[in-house]
Protein 1
Amino acid sequence: MAHADRLAVVTVCEVRVGVDCERRIPATAFGDLNWALTEVEAEEVRTGSEEILTEIWTAKESAGKAAGVGLATAPRRIRTRALHPRPAPEISFRKSEIDRMEFATRGWWLDDHHISVSWSVRDLG
């Protein structure tokens, strides 16, 4: 379960998933969140659209929840990368990794909020 403002998201399924939703994070917050980003993610934020920071953050949170650790682990340990091409401007696909676990993450925009759902793909160990 996740919520932001008046939006709530709940997943019900037979496999372990994580979900997160956030209001659009302004680009000016990049400096405040840079500590949580990998070098690759930081470069993606610097060169991408304003929405990228929110998409990365929700992917990190949903993958952390799917792994059962949330953001209790250092957020930088949750590595995400975009998978291209995007099927539509409002839809994103990312691959996330935490330690030796790989997650698929699908995200989409609903008005000014981004929702990400992550599920385990495989154990890389």
Protein 2
Amino acid sequence: MPFGGLRLAILINAVSFFGSGLFEMLIEYHWETRKISSIHEVWGDMLEGFRFIKDSKSLLVLVSLAIVLNTLLNPIFAVILPYISRVVLGYPLYNLKAFKPLQQLEH
């Protein structure tokens, strides 16, 4: 049996995964925390982050696009696709692992 194709791709992926893990062990990081004195400090930090996003044009466009896509596509994946798969196409929900929470509604 020749060695290549899918087997070679999986082997390369596994070697790169473990190599990445080995190199990650060499990273030295010292975690520094600070005590929060009041809720105003938290709000100040959040406002600083919002100002940073607002001042960066590309980051503002990216975050805005993510918000719009999440708002528009979430109802499609949460309501419309399960409806189409169950009612229109006639798939029982126990065959669709992605719709596992909806299976409980069936019983």
